[in-house]
Amino acid sequence: MYPAIETNGLSKDYGSGHGLFDLDLRIERGEVFGFLGPNGAGKSTTMRLLLDLVRPTAGSASILGLDARADSREIRRRVGFLPGDLALYPKLTGMEMLDHLAELRGHPDRGLRDSLAERFDAELDRPIHELSSGNRQKIGLIQAFMHDPELLILDEPIAGLDPLVQASFHGLLAEVSARNRTVFLSSHTLSEVERVTHRIAILRRGRLVVVDSLENLRQIAIQHLEIEFTAPVPAEEFAGLPGVREAKADGSQLTVAFEGSADLIVKAAAAHEVRAIRARENDLEEIFLRYYREEAGS
Amino acid sequence: MSQAVFRMAVRLRLAQSASAAFGLVAVLIMVGALFPAVGDAIGELDLPEGVADLLGGADYGTITGWYRGEISSVYGPLVAGGIAIVAASASTAGEEADRILALILAHPVSRAGLVAAKAAAVAAGVLIVAVATWVGLIAGVAVAGGGIGVGNLGAYALHLAFFGFASGAVALAIGAGTGRRGLATGGAAAFAVLGFLINGFAPLVDAIAWLKYISPFYYYAENDPLSNGVEPLDLLVLGLFALAMTAIAMLGLQRRDLRA
């Protein structure tokens, strides 16, 4: 079975170090894949390359087993796209805009559109120029999903959405993924991809830094232990242990940031009377910042 | 051609075309109403040849000369060309600048089909203006006391429409090729103004008289359709030029990246 997205050395060189360089990526069908990176990292450029809106300077991409350039029209028939800088015809109502986009696809079925509108509580009867950015974003999401595409390419999909709609959107992602639809979404909102994606890629300055599952990334991330003693303990006892990045004492509480095994830290703590030990869950924010810093420092 | 894109493009420009059409009808009737009092009084002006040509012969003493001077020489092409250029610039370059084009082209629409649909929509807007011109001229000439046949008035409206097609197609080609709305509008307007001046002044100097053949104004006005009716060859030249520019627009959009 062909993957949903496969790129080989995909590049778009805008000059002065801007663009996308040598992207090798494989996203399987049914995956919810998060594409992370700071602004200007090349996330939107990648998506525009996949949809043939811009052309690569090197490399190639295939979508749903089809060539991204030669078979672009067929690909676009089977893909739903939400641009990061969504713009719509301001004088139309949301309903008129969606009707027009459905017409472009030759897909007049309104059933799914209506159920999505209800799900997102979208205002479709008002002119678009009167809508808030969040309500316009809802229309953007509906148009991306309303033809039940095999692949969804979503650039910053929750921008401007309130928490209730975000939750509804996350539920929708889970549903489409369960039906073997693929979702390729970009974000710089780390909590968003942490909640909904199976794997993530981190992009920086147009280059892929890492691709892995969240589980694996968490394992290699810096971990934190909070140890509560019955009496104050000097942090220096822990700061020099192998793998420890940082040890901070606050009264009788010690926080240790470390990589790898916690064995030596626990053994060192055992020399004192320990009241409690808590492991803080690693989040993507730290993983992301770590890769960001490493790249920036290199 | 994408029919959905065509319908939407017509819809988005309909208010502009309709208001221009109503305005034109009103102006053409008003101009006709002024002829009995003003046209006869002015008569034929004694102007240098080039200047007189720019004013459609400057013969205000006849109803044909009156409309040629008041409408056909400047006002008509200004409105038809203006409507066409503004609509064409907005249709691809404008939508690209407004970031809507990326969403439209993320749908299964070919770039060539999109350009063809936009060109057809611009042509539809120009036709609305041309039909309004015909209706307004019929009414205006009737108010003025008659003197030009309905067929010749229709011939003029047809020449005006083809001039609009040519002007709009230049804007479409520049806009689709560059993605820059200002450049498309300015470039096409410059093309029209230069054509106007070349057609008026180039014939005064033998060595460059041939330049008039590269001006769309020559094919629009030289045969004087208000007096002589349709000149098929002139319409063919303008039509082929518009089609060539549309083809260039298709190639231009096809070959480049959409602007971010």
Task: Tell me about this structure.
The complex is a heterodimer of chains A (298) and B (260). With 298 residues, chain A is α/β, with parallel strands linked by helices. In chain A, 35% of the residues lie in helices and 30% in strands. In chain A, the strands form three sheets. A six-stranded mixed beta sheet of chain A has the order 6-7-8-3-9-10, with helices on both faces. Chain A has a four-stranded antiparallel beta sheet with strand order 2-1-4-5, with helices on one face. In chain A, helix 6 links the parallel strand 7 and strand 8 (182-187). In chain A, helix 3 (94-105) packs parallel to helix 5 and helix 4 (111-120) runs antiparallel to helix 5 (133-145). Chain B has 260 residues and is mainly α. Helix content of chain B is 78%, strand content 0%. Chain B has eleven helices and no strands. Chain B has helices at 3-42, 49-54, 63-72, 75-97, 100-105, 111-144, 150-178, 181-201, 216-221, 225-228, 232-255. The mean pLDDT of chain B is 88. The chains are: A alpha/beta (298), B mainly alpha (260). At the A-B interface, helix 2 and helix 3 of A face helix 1 and helix 5 of B.
Shape of chain B: globular
Mean pLDDT over all positions of chain B = 88
Strand content of chain A: 25-35%
* Approximate shape of chain A: elongated
